TrEMBL record:
The gene is Dpy19l1. GO terms for molecular function: mannosyltransferase activity. It comes from Anhinga rufa. The chain crosses the membrane at residues 12-35, 47-67, 116-133. It holds the Pfam family Dpy19. This is D19L1 mannosyltransferase. It is found in: Membrane.
């Protein structure tokens, strides 16, 4: 909670943080920790109690997030919930279609887990994860039978760290499966979890039979087989990005238009116009703003079936002087 407040201050009072799922989740977790021992009385932590608490956390988080957004009138992050809905119930609107038509925001492609497996990253992590589950089960049973003592403090701290990283791994896995782009969080965390194969606390029983250095060297050697092939593939990619029509367009804008001429068009193109020509633009790829999303919908209406006069009238209201119409968006057969 302290880190959330610090982040809110350092981000100049970003209101999205106050109505985020994370903030709502923290409040709900705090409530569960306070009320659970009183409401769900029991001498042992049975599985059904964990299920009840998990359902309460999920329902409470979603409900509290919706209520705080409604009360504070903040809709900047509304598209995030809509994207998640589109994954589960097929919900569609302009914003979700803008996202999901890009491969980066689609479900994780089948090749990703295959690549994880070929480099042995996924098998190693599954072994580590299985050992963590077994260790957690043992610790839980021990905590039910004996009192917590000072001597075991460090053991329990390590145990809590394992639980945190295991839950973090599950969260990142779900996000990466739903939105392929978010595997940028999953892949580094898989590497972090794989490094636990060197942990004496987890694999001390194995190190009694095999030298730790031998085990680690063998794993790295097997990983290097596919890893070196992947590196060679990347090193063989030669060349540079080139888009001559766009370069000519940007040069024409710099030479033939006023410095205060306002442009509108597809978001990626607008980013290039702003960066290369310093001309004002009415929409850009930063989509975490309700007003910007509304302007973008007006801009993209050029590709709709609305009458041209109506589209022009709405664009003039935004102060647009030039509109960059890309034929590729009209004739594309992609989803």
């Amino acid at each position: 909670q302290v880190s959330l407040v610090v982040c809110f201050i350092l981000m100049f009072g970003n209101s999205m943080l106050l109505t985020s799922y994370y903030a709502a989740s923290l409040v709900v977790i705090w409530g569960i920790l306070e009320l659970s021992p009183k409401v769900l009385k029991g001498s042992r932590r049975e599985v059904y109690l964990w299920v009840i608490e998990g359902c309460a956390w999920l329902f409470g988080t979603v409900t509290l997030k919706y209520l705080t957004s409604l009360v504070l009138g903040i809709a900047d992050d509304a598209h995030i919930g809509n994207i998640l809905k589109s994954k589960f119930i097929g919900y569609k609107d302009f914003d979700t279609l803008m996202y999901t038509c890009a491969a980066e925001f689609d479900f994780m492609e089948k090749e990703t887990p295959v690549r994880y497996t070929k480099t042995l990253l996924l098998p190693v992590v599954l072994v580590v994860f299985g050992v963590i589950i077994k260790r957690c089960t043992f610790k839980t049973e021990m905590s039910m039978q004996i009192c917590f003592c000072v001597v075991d403090v460090f053991g329990y701290l390590f145990f809590f760290q394992l639980v945190y990283h295991a839950l973090q791994l599950l969260a990142y896995s779900v996000l990466a499966i739903l939105i392929m782009r978010l595997k940028l969080f999953l892949t580094p965390h898989l590497c972090v979890m794989a490094s636990l194969v060197c942990s004496k606390q987890l694999f001390g029983w194995l190190f009694c039979k095999i030298q730790p250095k031998t085990l680690v060297f063998a794993i790295l050697a097997l990983m290097a087989i596919e890893g070196s092939a992947n590196l060679q593939t990347q090193w063989n990619i030669m060349g540079e990005f080139s888009n001559l029509p766009q370069e000519e367009l940007l040069e024409w804008i710099k030479v033939s238009t006023r410095q205060d001429a306002v442009f509108a068009g597809a978001m990626p193109t607008m980013a290039s116009v702003k960066l290369s020509t310093l001309r004002p633009i009415v929409n850009h790829p930063h989509y975490e703003d309700a007003g910007l999303r509304a302007r973008t919908k007006v801009v993209y209406s050029m590709y709709s079936r609305k009458p041209a006069k109506e589209v022009k009238r709405e664009l003039i209201k935004l102060g647009v002087n030039y509109y960059i119409l890309e034929e590729s968006l009209c004739v594309s057969r992609k989803k």
